[in-house]
Amino acid sequence: MNEIARGTIERLIAVVGPQGAITDPDDMAPYLVEWRDKWRGKSALVLRPSSTAEVAEIVRICAETGTAIVPQGGNTGLVGGSIPFEGGDEIVLSLGRMNRVRAVDPLNDTITVEAGCVLADVQAAADEAGRLFPMRIASEGTCQIGGNLSTNAGGTAVLRYGNMRDLVLGLEVVLPDGRVWNGLRGLRKDNTGYDLKHLFIGAEGTLGVITAAVLKLYPRPADRQVAFAAIPNPEAAVELLSLAKDVSGGQVTGFEILPRLGLELVMKSLPDARDPFGDLHPWYVLIEMSSGEGGGALREAMETALARGYEKELVADATIAESEAQAQQLWALREGLSESQKLAGGSIKHDVSIPVPKMPAFIARADRALEEVIPGFRSLAFGHIGDGNVHYNPLQPEGADAEAYLARWQEVADVVHGIVHEMGGSISAEHGLGRLKRDEVRRYKSEVELELMASIKRMLDPDNIMNPGKVISP
């Protein structure tokens, strides 16, 4: 695409007014860089519309002039999907001003929100209505619903509630020609043809701009129990997960695994973090159960699960939070892992999913394979083992040069992703493809899948103006 014409820029600014347009390079800078500083893009204009009508008019002008659009939410993504390329011929469409909660319906257990709503604000609005919106991710204070939907975000409660695809009943979307599809229906049963919303969830803005959504709500838990347990190995984690689900009657909300190295990194990075146990252990799991009923039954279920785990030698030690403050402290040991990795130097990150029973074998096999490639690397495998999603992030060897190590990113990814594919897994569990994995996914998806994706893209966006170069190759 060519440089954006001055006349086009002026037309676009007129849609949102001076308060909704950013042209100063310094003010645009936060919109052009990825959270990990892996990509820095360029743009002549950042637009911040305040309504669906403004989004539709922006898209119509861009369709008429062949101007590429990069939709952006809270810009917390990790695969470069919300960052423009370096050519400067794309505009950034930031939805942050579209942050209204349009409706809350406690009887129907739904909340209708605009795409720019911050996830934590949606959680708070649900709580105020006596309900729960269960999506929980580390960036919830910054990320926005539109981005969560566009990447089909996962998080720590997928085991119980599912990912964003499972939490949505309806969408409002501006299509690549500027038309608005109003699919904001709060229906749990609507068997009238293709379920169009699923085209846009996980599409990373390549098929249209999500402007609003009807989300599912749930009863607010009356009881929540959080435990931190020391275990001998990942095999024990899988067995303990099954035991906990059986004992609790399916009330396990979260089940997270982390190795000793991960706990040590968190304790170094968080001043208040403490090791819950006196002895060192190779692996740990964080378990959360929640229920709509009080009365102590859930506490008994947690205690029973841990006791049986101890009897089966699945658990070496455990502690159960005695207060909400203690529960938050235990969760901090898991949630602090992403940020704390910066202390370890180079970290080559993988967001992969494997069938849960195969997770221990995957970790062991990947560790062996990478030791042959990079002797002395440090294995850091952690995450949502309850739903088969592990963040396998091998760290540089002690004392190694970080830049030289990170230069081997693709070499390491080839090893890890090859094993994932052989074991029936996915190379992207919850982060998406963006530009990081756009080309790599071609090695693992069938030609039929790729052609179906390309056909949908060509049909909805024939001029390739919606986030071009992301998710699927042109």
UniProtKB/TrEMBL annotation:
<dbReference type="GO" id="GO:0071949">
    <property type="term" value="F:FAD binding"/>
</dbReference>
<comment type="similarity">
    <text>Belongs to the FAD-binding oxidoreductase/transferase type 4 family.</text>
</comment>
<dbReference type="InterPro" id="IPR051264">
    <property type="entry name" value="FAD-oxidored/transferase_4"/>
</dbReference>
<dbReference type="Pfam" id="PF02913">
    <property type="entry name" value="FAD-oxidase_C"/>
</dbReference>
<dbReference type="InterPro" id="IPR006094">
    <property type="entry name" value="Oxid_FAD_bind_N"/>
</dbReference>
<keyword id="KW-0285">Flavoprotein</keyword>
<dbReference type="InterPro" id="IPR016166">
    <property type="entry name" value="FAD-bd_PCMH"/>
</dbReference>
<protein>
    <submittedName>
        <fullName>Hydroxyacid dehydrogenase</fullName>
    </submittedName>
</protein>
<dbReference type="InterPro" id="IPR016169">
    <property type="entry name" value="FAD-bd_PCMH_sub2"/>
</dbReference>
<dbReference type="InterPro" id="IPR016164">
    <property type="entry name" value="FAD-linked_Oxase-like_C"/>
</dbReference>
<dbReference type="GO" id="GO:0003824">
    <property type="term" value="F:catalytic activity"/>
</dbReference>
<keyword id="KW-0274">FAD</keyword>
<dbReference type="InterPro" id="IPR036318">
    <property type="entry name" value="FAD-bd_PCMH-like_sf"/>
</dbReference>
<dbReference type="InterPro" id="IPR016171">
    <property type="entry name" value="Vanillyl_alc_oxidase_C-sub2"/>
</dbReference>
<feature type="domain" description="FAD-binding PCMH-type">
    <location>
        <begin position="39"/>
        <end position="220"/>
    </location>
</feature>
<dbReference type="GO" id="GO:0022904">
    <property type="term" value="P:respiratory electron transport chain"/>
</dbReference>
<dbReference type="Pfam" id="PF01565">
    <property type="entry name" value="FAD_binding_4"/>
</dbReference>
<dbReference type="InterPro" id="IPR004113">
    <property type="entry name" value="FAD-bd_oxidored_4_C"/>
</dbReference>
<dbReference type="InterPro" id="IPR016167">
    <property type="entry name" value="FAD-bd_PCMH_sub1"/>
</dbReference>
